[in-house]
Amino acid sequence: MKIKLKLLIIFLIIVIIGVTLIYNNRYFKYKITNDYQEKRLSISDFKLKDFKLEENGFLVSTSSDPWLELKNLNIKIDSVLINAKYLNNYNLLQVFYTYKDNPNFSEKKSIFRITDKKRSSYDIKFIHFKEIKDLRLDLVNKKDEKIKLESIVLNSTPKFEIPYRYLLLTIFLIGTIYFMSCNIYLLDKVNLVAPFMIFISVLILLMVTISTFNSHPDELDNSTPAIFYRSHWLPPKIGDPSSYFAYSAYGVSGLNDLNPYYFFVGKFSKLIRNNLMNAKLTLRTFNFLLFIILLILCLRVKNDNRIIFLPLLITPQVWYLFNYVNTDAYSLFLSFAMIYQITFPNSSLNKYLKCDDGCSKYVGAVISGLIIGLLFLAKKNYYVFILFLIFWFAWTIWFSEKQSRLKLFKKYLIILSIAVVVVAPIYLYDIFNNCIHIEQKYDKTQINLFDLYVNGFNKSQKIMAIQEKLAGEKFKPSTHLKNSAPTLYWKDKGMKYHEIFTKGKWGERSFCSFVGDFGYLNIKTPPPYYTIVFIVMMLFILYITGTILIKGDSKSKLFTLFVFGFVLLMIFIASFYSWTVDFQPQGRYLFPILGIISLWIYENRNILDKIVLNGFMGILFCLSVYSYVFGALYQIPKGL
After folding, report:
1. In the chain, N or C: fewer CB atoms in 10 Å?
2. Which CATH architecture has domain 37-157?
3. Rounded distance, CA 301 to CA 430, Å?
4. pLDDT band, very low/low/confident/very high, at 128 (cuts 50, 70, 90)
5. What is the three-state SS of 1-39?
6. pLDDT tens-digit readout, 485-504
């Protein structure tokens, strides 16, 4: 029976390789370009919008969204060299461009730099070496800013197109052959999670180093708050002009959140920036190191228990999160760090739970409380995972021996209390910084608590005010509903809840981005990936559920029921947000369920067949490598 299962799994892998080669034969081509052009421009070549040219040659912005625009350029450009003198730091210099087949300006077709008054030259490399139709230079993003533009030079140099396709094909085939060779002998003996995670780390590192900055979702909007913390230790007040560069087109900023992720990234970037690598790479490196920490935790665990990391292997979207600046990877890291604490017998948490009263091993309580506290401050969709953790605590108390229930309850209560201690100072600072009115009276500074009592915590009003000032026209709170952005407020625009599934295809689009859409969801995995991975995932879930129903005890069946309940709750919350606030069918918003599924598989590991489990994991891993290689790595714009 075991031999037949092995042969079946190997046959399925061979079929996957064959389908991959057939559908991707068009990628294995090669070309060299030798065009060369150079064009020098001056201010007179551009149409100015919200800029005033002074006699001394300085441009002065008359709004927070000025630009210079050049229509019908129609030449191939490799880079643009901008020589300019800025009087202030932290302006956002952004270059937008269009192609003949895509003539509209957008954030996806733009490259940015953060300005420095000590610097006078900005060399901006374009993503693709192809003909540019229109060019727009957003030199500043603040009103009343002065800049002296010395020169603009458009360069086209001989370009040798690096054959990434051959490299990526080699990686895919080596990875697949590596898995097959392991499976032949080890499928029922060794858990393959650790070797797979090592291989994934190589893929992530490759993406970190070759992909263009801001070619990933909201990388610019997540980077600017981190850049702020390179030179600051505390969050700014809402509306502080020094933080304007960190606001997105929505008029919101990560600086207004309580998430310490941006602080960690900013300080880490500053720490390694001067000596090791360029600024953008230092920002990305933080998330990559989070994945390396997960890999180290995996290597510390015994073979059978490594199954807790299985959900990280079955979708390439997880790997994709760890290659650029975003808070989702950080939140996912914290959730699996907590799963590790729960499941690893020698973890600090389990040592703490097993020790008698008076034991000195409170480090487990501190670490677990810290993780839960940081997770509470991270992405709000992980509140569902925190709720699941509280349920897990109650579950273990209920199924423990009666005489130890009270002791276990007290220990879990200490952990949650430490989490509150972690969260409370940050909330109190935020209240003091943004909610309490401070006034000057008789040369003395006074805190007007009466104003707090009368007006309440008015942080939301301040956020709306700054959003009104800095957001794009379609995202301003004052914009009439019918003129707002197409993705906003579908419920208020008259759409029924079920119509986000039928008309908006929320379920289909969320699943595709859960397993294989990259970039700004515009990079798709070549077919027939989505259909195959959906079928394999459904079969995997049915196998686990069926095994529990047949072989599991009543406790396992009841736990499975609760797991499904939390998964459905997460799906409902994500879809409800898309309906009522902003239609964003992104699979990453459902990633809190990965930690829940991890614990579900771990709890039932003794009744699940190792061959079948490793087989499903291997097939989904190969599919994920296929998606990451031919979807993400091959199609993503290159050049950091």
Report:
1. N
2. Sandwich (2.60)
3. 39
4. low
5. CHHHHHHHHHHHHHHHHHHHHHHCHHHCCCCEECCCEEE
6. 888 889 998 899 999 999 88
